[in-house]
Amino acid sequence: MKPRIKLSTIFQYLIFFAIGLGLVWWQLGRMTPEEKTQFYESLRNARYIYVIPIVILGLLSHLFRALRWKLLINPMGKVSGENAFYSVMTGYFGNTFIPRFGEILRCTMLSKYEKVPFSKLVGTVITERLFDLVCFILFLLLTVLIQLNTVGNFLDEKLSLISAQKRGVHSWLKLLIFLAIVIVCITAGSYFMKKYKDRKLVLRIKSLLAGLREGVSTIFRLRERGAFLLYTILIWALYLSQIYIGFKALDVTQHLGIGAGMSVLALSTIAMIVAPGGLGAFPVAVQQVLLVYHVNNISFGWLVWGVNTALIIVAGAISFLLLIYRNKGRHHSIAHKPPLNTDDNQ
After folding, report:
1. Distance between the two ends of the chain, CA-based, in angstroms?
2. Which of 336, 326, 302, 296 is nearest to 38 (CA)?
């Protein structure tokens, strides 16, 4: 039986997409005639030869991400590096249009052709995202420390503005309410699982949770921890290199250095979460960062976003087709039918 997409899920995706389009309309609509002229002139006179290394570095970053993901999967069963790369690219393709859908898509595609259950693959993706979050926080702190005066003053200004806008609202009270809701949900869930422990649905949920738990625990069972850290460093280094080389494509940004690139990467990473594929949000975030370095031009954000989005769409679509073509006749039902008996997963 094929899973049905809920109306609320579709509505959620439409909201994210609308946010992206709204940001595009807002950004372009608020531009003065002079700014629009500057925008089009910057893109018209850009040195597009730099697009080539940006594309190569982008593909390499995705390749290292696939190899790093493969390291997390290995303790549960060996998978093809080729299939892992195609699945990652297919996932990025899905994320371009629907937020977070790509994470499910890449696990679905890989579990279809490899002997690793879907739930366990989701667990490895959760682990990967948590690790990326820690890396992002460290990268953000490093960015601020390296440019303490420039970036520190900018963050102080933004945080002060947010604080002034939320005056009278007790953040700690919101946190307590959130924690109370979480505790109630966990307690209710535990009660339901114990009372109806022999129900088919509960057994399937336990099987899913067991798979997720095993997937998440792979980070503690890694034998190639050095390789995992190396891939992580390479991924972030390639991201930063894309930004730095991209600076050289426009006259208005060619003087910017690694420090500015780190700032752009830090804020643009957040922007990618706001809307599908960073639509609208990415150029706005980049422009705000460049203002810190006295560059008032949105062209760079659109250039980098456009190149990376085109790369994801083209390479993602090709990877999806290659994944199907290269794995003709390979299907593993374990990916779709988790066992009812959870003893084997404990």
Report:
1. 27
2. 296
